[in-house]
Specification:
The complex is a heterotrimer.
Chain A lengths: L3 E10 L2 E10 L6 H12 L18 E4 L2 E4 L5 H4 L4 E5 L6 E3 L2 E2 L2 H9 L22 H9 L7 H5 L1 H5 L6 H11 L7 H7 L14 H5 L6 H17 L4
Parallel strand pairs in A: 1-5
Antiparallel strand pairs in A: 1-2, 3-4, 3-5, 6-7
Helix pairs in contact in A: 3-7, 4-7, 7-10
Chain B lengths: L2 H33 L5 H8 L3 H30 L4 H26 L1
Helix pairs in contact in B: 1-3, 3-4
Chain C lengths: L1 H27 L4 H7 L3 H29 L9 H19 L1
Helix pairs in contact in C: 1-3, 3-4
Classes of the chains: A alpha+beta, B mainly alpha, C mainly alpha.
Chain lengths: 239, 112, 100
């Protein structure tokens, strides 16, 4: 194990940028987030990057490490640094604000376009709507519900890269959880929102999202189910 | 192209895929068997000419291909060339007609 | 693995779509089949035939994988389908090569 890491970091903005090289002292149990933090604090205070919890709960620190999207706080350097080398870049498929900070707005806009918001029928004056936790539908929703919107799947997705209008795995995964929510009243409109060439049908099952999701979710599965729901609706004339 | 049309095209693509899966397996098995020991035109045509079942099978095969290939190319044109819209779809319909016409001509040539 | 197979699936689909009109044309001229078959004895043509059969097998295997992922209930082994599909396609290609 070398004493020094040779790190390439992408620096730049919306107009473009370039790789810059830094040398970072190697430490035991070091994470990529530790490396980036060291660079900003000790080597180059102009480096812009995001993090919050640093313990793998918030998803803010997602970046491209050696070309793959990861949570940098949960990526040990030992696992990814070949021959003591590392590269860090902002999340793919998103515009860059500066350096390692990606602009997440389109990610969340697409969430909204997929109708990823809950719409219920009760008000605060009514009693709670009861949902059986063991029901088939609730279990399907629960299997996909833990998404924290970190953008790793979006950065990993080849269809997002090829089609700027594609809603993406996270938005569709969230729509799937709501399709399975018996309290939601807007599913007819939601199915229409996730049909079409820029939505669920565009997924080519490369499964990069499922492979990279740090919460071990499987958006491919939810999207496949959406494809079936959407085609059933279309054949029944309900789309 | 509405969401509904996109979805129906997707369904047609998967349905024709299932038909083609069966046809292709049968076709590959036949070809691999036939190719062993060489083949002559007379040998092939001896088996196929007047074969009504064969004609029916390959007619279904050709029509499934005429549905499946253009829809597949539709996605490629959109993703690799950014081409969407009516012009693209008209071209693909023309390609479908071409495949069907040439394919049925081939079926006639081999089986009639 | 899935991305590589998906790339092969797409390229083989394009190649097959472009090849088929030629294939149909030749077959429609069945009366001249012997002359055509004589031409196919050349090694370059044999190699092309093998290529087409392998492309077809790749496209079929990749396509069956897509159908499985889209229509069968999700299981953990779904992740292994890409490798399985590639293996089957190569086996078919080998079978054809041996038969030639």
């Amino acid at each position: 194990m070398s004493a020094v890491l040779k790190v390439r970091v992408w620096r730049g903005g919306p107009e473009g940028g370039a790789w810059r090289a830094y040398e970072v002292p190697r430490r035991e149990s070091q994470t990529v987030l530790d490396v980036v933090t060291h660079i900003q604090r000790a080597l180059d205070s102009t480096l812009a990057y995001r993090y919050a919890c640093r313990v793998g709960m918030c998803g803010s620190c997602a970046m491209m490490v050696n070309g793959a999207p990861r949570w940098t706080c949960r990526t040990h350097v030992d696992k990814v640094a070949r021959d003591g080398k590392l590269s860090v870049a902002p999340l793919r498929n998103l515009p860059v604000i500066r350096d390692l900070v990606a602009d997440m707005r389109e990610f969340f806009d697409k969430w909204a376009r997929a109708r990823g918001q809950f719409e219920g029928r009760r008000t605060r004056a009514d009693d709670f709507e009861k949902v059986a936790p063991g029901s088939e539908a609730r279990r399907r929703a629960d299997a996909a519900i833990e998404c924290i919107g970190c953008g790793v799947c979006y950065a990993a997705c080849d269809v997002v890269a090829a089609n700027p209008d594609y809603l993406g795995p996270a938005a569709l995964n969230r729509a799937w959880t709501l399709v399975n929510d018996e309290r939601d009243t807007s599913n007819a409109a939601r199915l229409r929102a996730v049909a079409g060439d820029d939505a669920s049908l565009a997924c080519h099952t490369h499964m990069s999202c499922t492979e990279r999701c740090p919460k071990a979710l499987a958006p491919t599965a939810g999207i496949a189910s959406l494809k079936r729901a959407v085609s059933r609706a279309a054949l029944a004339g309900k789309l | 192209m509405s969401a509904r049309t996109d979805t129906l095209l997707w369904v047609a693509q998967r349905a024709s895929a299932v038909v083609l899966a069966l046809c292709v397996v049968a076709h590959l098995a036949t070809i691999i068997y036939a190719v062993q020991g060489g083949l002559t035109g007379a040998e092939i045509l001896g088996r196929t000419r007047g074969n009504a079942a064969g004609m029916a099978f390959y007619t279904v095969f050709v029509l499934a291909v005429a549905v499946h290939a253009p829809i597949g190319l539709r996605t490629v044109l959109a993703e690799w060339f950014g081409w969407r819209g009516r012009a693209r779809d008209f071209l693909l319909i023309a390609f479908a007609v071409l495949l069907a016409a040439m394919g049925l001509q081939a079926v006639r040539g081999v089986f009639a | 693995m899935s991305r590589a197979l998906a790339r092969a699936h797409r390229l083989s689909g394009i190649a097959l779509a472009l090849f088929l009109p030629a294939h149909f044309y030749v077959l429609s001229r069945a009366l001249e089949l012997d002359a055509f078959l004589a031409w196919t004895e050349q090694p370059a043509v044999k190699f092309a035939e093998w290529g087409l059969v392998t492309l077809l097998a790749l496209h079929l295997a990749g396509g069956l994988r897509v159908l499985a992922l889209e229509f069968l209930p999700w299981r953990d082994w779904a992740k292994g389908l890409a490798a399985a599909a590639a293996a089957v396609a190569l086996a078919v290609g080998l079978a054809f090569a041996l038969a030639l």
